[in-house]
Amino acid sequence: VRVTLLAGGVGGARFALGLLDVVGAAAVTIVGNVGDDVELLGLHVSPDLDTCLYTLAGVVHPEQGWGVEGDTREALGVVGRLGGADWFILGDRDIGLHLVRTERLRRGEPLSRVMADVAARMGVGARLLPATDDRLRTRVLTDDGELGFQEWFVGRRAAPPVRRLRFAGTPGARPAPGVLQAIADADRVVLAPSNPFISLDPILAVDGVRAAVQARRADVVAVSPLIGPRAVKGPLGEMLDALGHERSPLGVARYLAPLAGRFVLDQADAGHADRIRALGVEPVTAAALMRDAAARRRLAEAALT
Ligand code: GDP
Ligand code: CA
Do residues 76 and 70 make contact, with C-beta atoms less than 8 angstroms apart? Predict the structure, then answer.
């Protein structure tokens, strides 16, 4: 079976690992989020794509879920001592990737081609596509004004409540080559257990992507990033509250119901199953915590049943 996965960073990448285990790398296309991308110190950083890349290449920091295992921060230390912007963590090995990517982008190569080449060189068998090669940036409207995504997430520790999100560059951002076809041709489209507002929505905001996913709704399955009222990691719980959604897997299922005909939720949340079914969404219960390889594999299997 060919599977296309819409994925953000850590939740998306960990799910992707399980998926590769089940169907094999050659059967998987990942459509990744670029709304988090940021230019720092002259470098183009793509945090979510790189989390997928490092995870699938087997070099990711295992507890953190992002960055390269064993990486050092010598360069960033120098940046700080010299009065440069050191608020965003860039490991030394990580910087090597950013240097190559930035130089190639500056010469006019599309991000999708750079990432395909880098992924191949790192031994990643799955196809990793940025949702768009065009400039798309998540902007966060707060009571302190509008912030760039990383300014809000890292700079402000995701503390100011989110009033609204906006994806600068949309409409008008064109899908990267292969994105729409990967959604149309897959046997299954999976919405990873990623943050729906800041990981999935910026992918769906690319011209034609939401419609392409909607057209496959019967074959689209979403996996809950919430277990009970809590995100396994990150600010999703607070964001659901701030944006006026129920803080539960049901709240996420309701939000994604126009796109996904099936929804995987944790066994502990089985009490929501009837209300999810009432939305016209088929609930599937499974152990949703991806604590190890076996758990990731079982969750991927549940999503594909
Ligand atoms: P980010 O860019 O690293 O924030 O990436 P994602 O949006 O892909 O991942 C964050 C989401 O993954 C959060 O909402 C987490 O709750 C979810 N997540 C992380 N680990 C797990 C897990 O083991 N199981 C499930 N179901 N969700 C998880
Ligand atoms: Ca992210």
Answer: no
